[in-house]
Design goal:
553 residues, alpha/beta, six-stranded antiparallel sheet, six-stranded mixed sheet, elongated
């Protein structure tokens, strides 16, 4: 429950601390006293979008702090695992707003995002403001309300995933059909390209290999001439090898007389002889491998030029030709084998559609079951609100396939009939002003009872009703407060009298500054405030007696 609310420098409030209680908490005051400021302040602490206009004029920043006491198993603690909040400890939500529009959010003095604060706030408080009726009156939101009442969110998410899968397979099929249609149009061109590039048969890395081979062939004559000169230098005038052998024999004749000094000379000569022999062998091998065929150069150049011409034709690099050929072959194969692929995709799409349809049908049946339970719950609320002859019906209809969506294939609408035998219709068209408020209260009570928030806030839920009907509204709120903390802002003395704690909101001017204050009323003050609500500015003894009677009743 909400235990404390502290407001600093928000609109007309300079400093305000309220300690709330369990049960039905009533807030009353003259029109314009600042009741809406309390709601705006609380909403700010719950993470709604910040508005710099809320900061009190002449101050740099405003702050709202809301303290909650929750049981350890409340789901809000699951969201706060990342900031290490102990289960069961008080939650303190603080929002600071500066005059230039910046805001900071914290939970238990640890900075958090406004999004996390909003998610936590939605689990702590449900605010049913004066504009909430618009959402209840708009049939486009009725399906969501029914799903929330029936705890069907997980089922809806599962259907949504199947819907996405159905859409994905349908798009794959549509894409394949488009490609098939285009491929059939291009079939003749594809066959020509496959034949042309197939005859060319480009290979990976072929351009580089041909360029190297062409360079070698173009310089083959110069290379051969250089090799001949090298061989001549090694063999002319008896050859270097013969000279090395002559030198070796000369050293060998005196090596025994040199006491080992000539050993290195002999080893060097032997190595030289070996190296010279290897050099001559290498020259001969290169010379024998050298291609001097002019026809070979012509063949290489023709191939190289053919590849480059094909690349220019297809506006790509030569290296991309093999992949281009594979692409043409693949597209042609798609034409030739397309029927089989299309059949497989059709089967996948139909299977995905059937999975979605079955799951959506099960969800629809659950909605009908939940709808009947909700109708019964709302009807139970109507009799105490002096609407015993009215009927409330949740209409659930299947929509055509083109209107299927991620939330299923149902349209949900809340219908009412205010008189026996009359046809049920939309709330906005059937109910009068006073009836509409009571239908709204019945709906809000039922929906709130199904929610997880331990604190409910109602802003002028009794608008448009009075007398016995207002008394019934107060009695219903009082009963609702047995299980939940209920805060109600009201102009009705009957509703105010049903409260277990009562605060009065006043606006006063001091030294040229308008200030809003909130005061917890004593028993005597409460009687006086309800008497004022009954009689107006001049409180009579009769009004005090009537107020006391309402409170005691």
């Amino acid at each position: 429950m909400l235990e404390k609310l502290a407001i600093r420098n928000i609109v007309l409030i300079d400093r305000l601390d309220i300690a709330f209680e369990k049960g039905l908490c009533v807030l009353t005051g003259e029109t314009g006293a600042g009741k809406s400021i309390l709601l705006d302040s609380l909403a700010l602490a719950l993470g709604v979008r910040a508005d710099a206009g809320l900061v009190r004029a002449g101050t740099e920043q405003g702050t709202v702090t809301a303290e909650f006491n929750l049981p350890p198993d409340h789901p809000a603690f699951d969201l706060l695992s990342e900031i290490e909040v102990d289960r069961g400890e008080p939650l303190i939500l603080r929002r600071t707003l500066t005059a230039d529009g910046r805001s900071r959010a914290s939970i238990n003095d640890q900075g958090v995002s406004a999004g996390l604060m909003r998610n936590v706030g939605e689990m702590l408080v449900e605010i049913h403001g004066q504009n909430a009726e618009r959402g209840l009156l708009d049939a486009r939101g009725h399906r969501l309300l029914l799903d929330q009442y029936g705890r069907l969110e997980a089922d809806v998410m599962a259907v949504g995933r199947l819907y996405e899968g159905m859409q994905e397979t349908a798009e794959k099929l549509a894409s394949a059909l488009r490609e098939m249609e285009q491929a059939r149009i291009d079939e003749e061109y594809l066959r020509h390209m496959v034949e042309e590039l197939g005859d060319l048969a480009p290979e990976e890395g072929e351009e580089e290999a041909l360029a190297v081979e062409r360079s070698n062939l173009m310089h083959a004559e110069k290379i051969a001439e250089a090799l001949r000169d090298a061989e001549k230098a090694l063999t002319d005038h008896g050859g270097i090898e013969n000279r090395i052998r002559t030198a070796t024999r000369a050293v060998e004749r005196v090596i025994e007389k040199a006491s080992g000094k000539l050993d290195p000379v002999l080893e060097s000569l032997e190595r030289a002889a070996i190296e010279m022999a290897e050099a001559q062998t290498a020259i001969n091998m290169v010379a024998s491998d050298l291609d001097m065929d002019p026809a070979g150069l012509e063949r290489v150049e023709e191939r190289l030029f053919a590849l480059r011409a094909a690349a220019r034709k297809h506006k790509c690099e030569v290296a991309e030709l093999p992949r281009l050929l594979e692409n043409f072959i693949s597209r042609l194969r798609a034409v030739e084998e397309g029927d089989r692929q299309i059949t497989a995709l059709r089967e996948q799409a139909e299977a995905a559609r059937e999975q979605y349809r079955q799951a959506a049908a099960v969800l629809g049946e659950k909605r009908r079951t939940v709808g009947a339970e909700m109708d019964e719950a709302v009807m139970a609320e109507l009799d105490p609100l002096r609407l015993g002859a009215a009927r409330f019906t949740t209409e659930i209809a299947d929509v055509p396939e083109e209107s299927w969506g991620p939330a299923g294939m149902n349209r949900v609408a809340f219908l009412v009939a205010t008189n026996p035998g009359s046809h049920a219709g939309p709330l906005i068209k059937i109910a009068s002003g006073g009836e509409l408020s009571r239908f709204m209260l019945a709906l809000k009570v039922v929906l709130a009872r199904a929610g997880s928030a331990p604190t409910l806030v109602f802003d002028e839920v009794d608008r448009g009703v009075g007398g016995a009907t207002a008394d019934a509204v107060g009695e219903r709120l009082h009963r609702l407060a047995h299980d939940l903390q209920v805060l109600v802002i009201t102009h009705s003395p009957q509703v105010a009298a049903a409260g277990q704690a009562h605060w009065n909101i006043r606006k006063a001017e001091a030294e040229g500054v308008t200030i809003t204050s909130v005061t917890r009323l004593t028993a005597e003050e409460r009687t006086e405030e309800i008497a004022r609500m009954l009689s107006g500015a001049s409180v009579t003894a009769e009004a005090r007696a009537a107020a006391l009677s309402l409170i005691e009743g």
